[in-house]
TrEMBL record:
InterPro entries: Amino_oxidase, FAD/NAD-bd_sf, Protoporphyrinogen_oxidase, Zeta_carotene_desat/Oxidored. GO terms for biological process: protoporphyrinogen IX biosynthetic process. NCBIfam families: proto_IX_ox (TIGR00562). This is Protoporphyrinogen oxidase. GO terms for cellular component: mitochondrial inner membrane. It comes from the Eukaryota. Its EC number is 1.3.3.4. Belongs to the protoporphyrinogen/coproporphyrinogen oxidase family. Protoporphyrinogen oxidase subfamily. Binds 1 FAD per subunit. The keyword Oxidoreductase applies.
Length: 341
């Protein structure tokens, strides 16, 4: 799919038809690619705050993108400065993103931090002295402060009766499922260059987009190298499949992914390798009113003086970068220090 936006040369008075095209093509694709969600249900203020600020500043999202939305404080570090100087558009790790949690585990355990594995949390309860009792599978522990990075809906089921209003608010933060299909082709070439492309729901309700992995990170192609692409499936199509009782098999997702790669990229030969993963309820949906839910939750925690901090994808950003920043700020707040910018 190619998007072409033609802007008036005079006073930049955007016509309703152009606005409709941007909404039905660009914004629909963007919402599906980032959130696997419906652009008519998501909150622009919560999902894309820079676009919201553009509209507030210049009365139009398109005008805001053209004229700029002003500078807001940004996190700063040597790595961030390098990324800005070199104009990174995306990043990964040499051994894949799984290296990130592995490195965190090594860093923490080497400093005496206990990491409990295979012990799911069964519930949280408040003790008389204001501490938390964390109930595990067959044991428990106490904590002065809890930072929760689990999905909001999961946390809502763990909270005690004293936090019922918070639990009700968190329960309304739903999530979408996405099937990720990694395909590798021997001796194939892509007809286009770039990071990938997104697909509007009007063009294909099942395919959210395709990432051109070999172009973005060719050093991960392996040996012998092969062309790698990732097809993302989800949205209303996946919801309809589930509602109809269809078996969500690996064969179904692979068939849909291969068809998309063939029709959209011309990769008509069968792939040499295929990996399929269905991630259930993996992307939180920031629907209309999401920011108000967060304000209500923050106010409740403050008024009740509950030693609990919310972090992770359910609240203020689903991307890896945003989750890292969310965790950093949550730790700073728990320690009572101002997060460095």
């Amino acid at each position: 799919m190619r998007l072409c936006t033609v802007l008036p040369s005079a006073a930049l008075d955007l016509s309703p038809s152009l606005t409709l095209q941007v909404a039905s093509l660009a914004m629909d694709s963007l919402c599906r690619g980032v959130f696997a969600g419906n652009s008519r249900e998501l909150s622009i203020r919560s999902c894309f705050p820079s676009l919201f600020q553009a509209e507030q500043t210049h009365r139009s999202i398109l005008l805001g993108l053209l004229l700029g939305t002003g500078q807001s404080p940004q996190p700063d570090s040597a790595l961030v400065r390098q990324a800005r100087a070199e104009r990174w558009s995306q990043w990964s790790l040499r051994g894949g993103l799984e290296m990130l949690p592995q490195a965190l585990d090594t860093h923490l355990t080497s400093r005496g931090v206990s990491v409990l594995r295979g012990q799911p949390v069964r519930g949280l309860s408040l003790q008389a002295e204001g501490r938390w009792k964390v109930s595990l599978g067959d044991s428990s522990l106490e904590a002065d402060h809890v930072i929760s990075a689990v999905p909001a809906s999961v946390l809502s089921d763990l909270l005690p009766a004293e936090a019922a209003p918070l639990a009700r608010a968190l329960r309304t933060i739903t999530a979408a499922s996405v099937a990720v299909v990694n395909l590798q082709y021997r001796g194939a070439r892509l007809p286009v260059q770039g990071f990938g492309h997104l697909v509007p729901s009007s063009e294909d309700p099942g395919v959210l987009g395709i990432i051109y992995d070999s172009i973005a990170f060719p050093e991960q192609d392996g040996s012998p190298p092969g062309l790698r692409v990732t097809v993302m499936l989800g949205g209303s199509w996946l919801q309809m499949q589930e509602a109809s009782g269809c078996v969500l098999s690996q064969e179904l997702f692979q068939q849909e992914a291969e068809k998309a790669a063939a029709t959209q990229l011309g990769l008509k030969e069968p792939p040499s390798h295929c990996l399929v993963h269905l991630h259930k309820n993996c992307i939180p949906q920031y629907t209309l009113g999401h920011w108000q839910k967060l304000e209500s939750a923050t106010q409740f925690l403050a008024v009740q003086r509950l030693p609990l901090t919310l972090a992770g994808a359910s609240y203020e950003g689903v991307a890896v970068n945003e989750c890292i920043e969310s965790g950093r700020q949550a730790a700073a707040r728990a320690l009572g220090i101002e997060p460095a910018r």
